Amino acid sequence: MKTIKLLLSVILIAVLPLNAQEVKGKITSKNEALPYVNVYLKGTTKGNASNEFGDYQIKNIKAGNYTIVASFTGYKSVEKQIFIKNNEVLTVNFNLEESALLDEVTVTGTLKPVSRLESPIPVEVYSATFLKQNPTANVFEALQNVNGVRPQLNCNVCNTGDIHINGLEGPYTLVLIDGMPIVSGLSTVYGLSGIPNSLIEQIEIVKGPASSLYGSEAVGGLINIRTKQFFKAPLVFADVFSNSWGETNFDLGFKTNVGKKATVLVGANYFNYSNPIDNNNDNFTDVTLQDRISVFQKWNFERNSGKAFSLAGRYFYENRWGGEMQWNSSYRGGNDIYGESIYTSRYEIIGNYELPVSEHMNFQFSYSDHDQNSVYGDTPYIAQQKIGFGQLLWDKSVNNHDLLFGVAARYNFYNDNTTATVHADEVTIPSIFAQDEFSISEKQHILLGARYDYDKRHGSIFTPRLAYRFKPTKNDIIRLNAGTGFRVVNLFTEDHAALTGSRDVIIEEELKPEQSYNVTLNYLKTLTTNSGELFTFDASLWYTHFTNAIIPDYDTNPNQIIYANLDGYSTSKGASFNIDAVLNTNLRASVGATFQDVSQTENNVKIQQILTEKFNGVWSVSYKNYKTNLSVDYTGTIYGPMRLPLLGDLDPRSEYSPTWSIQNIQLTFNGLKHFEIYGGVKNILNWTPNKGNPFIIARSDDPFDENVEFDNDGNAIVTDDNPYALTFDPSYVYAPNQGRRLFLGLRFMIN
Hints:
Blueprint: H1 2-15, E1 21-29, E2 32-33, E3 38-41, E4 47-49, E5 55-61, E6 64-71, E7 78-84, E8 89-91, E9 94-95, E10 105-106, E11 114-115, E12 124-127, H2 128-133, H3 139-142, E13 149-153, E14 161-165, E15 173-177, E16 180-183, H4 186-190, E17 200-207, H5 211-214, E18 221-227, E19 236-243, E20 248-258, E21 262-273, E22 289-301, E23 309-323, E24 339-354, E25 360-376, E26 379-398, E27 401-416, E28 425-439, E29 444-455, E30 459-473, E31 476-487, H6 491-494, E32 504-507, E33 514-528, E34 534-547, E35 560-563, E36 568-582, E37 587-602, E38 605-608, E39 615-625, E40 630-639, E41 660-672, E42 675-682, E43 741-750
Parallel strand pairs: 1-8, 1-9, 15-18, 32-35
Antiparallel strand pairs: 1-2, 1-5, 3-4, 3-6, 6-7, 10-11, 12-17, 13-14, 15-16, 17-18, 19-20, 19-43, 20-21, 21-22, 22-23, 23-24, 24-25, 25-26, 26-27, 27-28, 28-29, 29-30, 30-31, 31-33, 33-34, 34-36, 36-37, 37-38, 37-39, 39-40, 40-41, 41-42, 42-43
C-alpha cells in the first residue's frame, strides 16, 4: 500500500503544474464591463489586462499573500489584499469609480513609486489616451498639448528642435526614458523621435529643478517617458496613419514569452516624408524630409526570488534633409545648392536589477552611443557622443521616515570636428544623494533631499531641495518646493543655431556652469457637484533665478552669435493653472494657461529672453457616443508674442511674433473588434509663420552670401541687391511651417 501511495504521489507531482494557482475576475464600472483595465500583483511582475468583456486572468502564481491592484486611466485605482492557496483559482472582482483627478502611480518626483496624490513633488501625468487625442509621429510633437511645455523649432531648414518648460530653453530640460537620463546632448536636438507611441505607458513631467536627484541638465524640469510593462501591453498591435502632405507613420509590436523565465515586448516605428513642399515660395522646403526607423525591445526575467530584472534596448536611424527645392544628395557638403543633411545612428541600453539581499536595493544602468554625420551647406559637423550611467538605490523605511540613498556615476564622451573641441571631452562625474520623506502630522508631509556631484572641470557641486505637502482636506493639497540646480554647457550639441546660417560663433570666455535657485507653490483641488460632474483644479506659482546664465546674444552684432556667462542674472517667473472636467460618461474637457516673464538683466538693463512667449494656453474636448461607437477629440494651443532674432535695424521682419494658434479635430470609430479607424484635420486655421512677414528665411535666394558686400568690420552693407543689409539666416523661427492637412489612420490591437 505504501508503494502505491508513493507511486500516486510521484504521478501527481509529475502531472500537476508547480504554480497552478491563478486569480481571475471581472472589471466593471456602473454595472457595465470595463475593458483594458490593468490588473497586477503589487511588487511582482505578474499581471494582465481585462479583455473586451471586462474579464481578466493571472496565471502561474505562487501561493501566498498579495496586494492585487486594478488601475485604469480616468478611474480610481483599487487595491485588495488576497491570500491564494495551493492549487486554488481565486475569483476577485472589481468595480471602478470614475475620477477627475488621475491618481496614477509616478516615480519621477521621488525616484520611487508613489501615488500622484501623495507625492510631495507636483508631477503631471499624461497617459496613452492623451497621445491618441492628437496622433503624432513622435513625442516631440505630442508635447505641444501640455500646458507650459512648448516644442521649439530651432531652424527653418532642418526643423530640429527642443522642449521648453516654463519658458526655459531645451537644454534646461532633462528627458528620461524609463527613468534613465539617456536623452541629452546630441539627442536633445535629434533623439526625441522614434519612440513608438503605442509602447508609451505614460509621460511624467516635473516643472522646476530636479538636480538633487537627477544631476546636471534637470535645471528647468524633466520629462520621463515610461514605456509599458509587459502585462499592460497588448499581445499584438499596429498603428498606421498618413496625411495629405505625404507623411506616413507606422508602429508595430507584439509581446511573447521566451521560455519559462523571460518575456519580451517588441516594438518598431517607421516614419517617412519624401514630398518636398514650398508653399511660402522661398525655394526652401517648408518641412524637412525624413526617413526614420526605430526598433525597441524590453525584456523581463523572472527570478526565483521574485525580485525584478529587466533589460531594454533601442536602435534609431534617421536620414533627414532640408534646403533648396532642387537639392539632392549629390550636392551634400558643396556650395552649389544649399542643403542641410543629417544622418543619425543611435543605440541605447537600459537595465534594472534588484539585488538579491533582504533590503530593497536596485542597480539601474544605461548606455547610449550616438553618431551624427551632418552638413549645413558646406559646413560639416561630425560628432560622436557616448553616455554611460549607473546608480545604486537603497530604499529604506525606518519608523516614520521613508529614506532613499543613492550613489551614481555618469560617463560622458563627446567629440566633434569643430574648433571648440580640439580634444575629445571625456569626463566621469561621481555622485551621492540622500532623501528623507516623513510626516510631521496627519496632514503635513516633508521631503528633504541633497546631492553631491564632483566634476573635475568645475569641482564640487551641491544641490539641496525641500518639499512640503499640506493636505487640509481630502480634496485639497498644497505643495511648496524649493531647490537648486546646475548645468554644464555642451554648446554645439545644444544650440543648433551655432551651426546653421552664416552668423559667426563667438565664444568670449571659458564658460562656467550655470546655477539656479527655484521656489514653486502648487495648489490642487478636486470638486464633485451634486449632479455628478467631477472637476480638478491645479494652479502653480514659480520663480527661478539663474547665475552664470549662458544665453546666446543675437543682438550685439547681427552677424554673430556671442556666447558668454551673463554678467548679471536671468529669471523665469510666472503662474499656471489647469482645469480638468468629467462632465458625464460621454464628455470630458480640459483647459490650461501659463503666464510667464522670462528675462535677463545685465548692467541694470532688463530685456525679454528671445523666443519666449508671454503666455500660452492649451485645451481639449473629448466626446464619446457609445451607441454609434464614435468619439470626437478637439485639441488646441495658443501662444503669445515672443521676441525674435532679427539681423539689424533694417530687417523688415517683425521683431515680435503675433499671437497664434494651432487647432486640431479628430473623429474615431471603434465599433469593429480589434480595430479603430481615426481621421481628422490638423492645423484647422492653416496658421504658418510667414503670414504678415515679407519672408522668413533671410537671403534665401543667396544662401552662401555670394552677393553680399561687407565693410571692414565684417558687417553686411546696403546694396541694390541687398537693400536690408542682410546675410543668409534661417534662425527666425517660432512656429511650424506646415499648414492645414488631413490625416487618416488605422489601429489594430489584440489583448
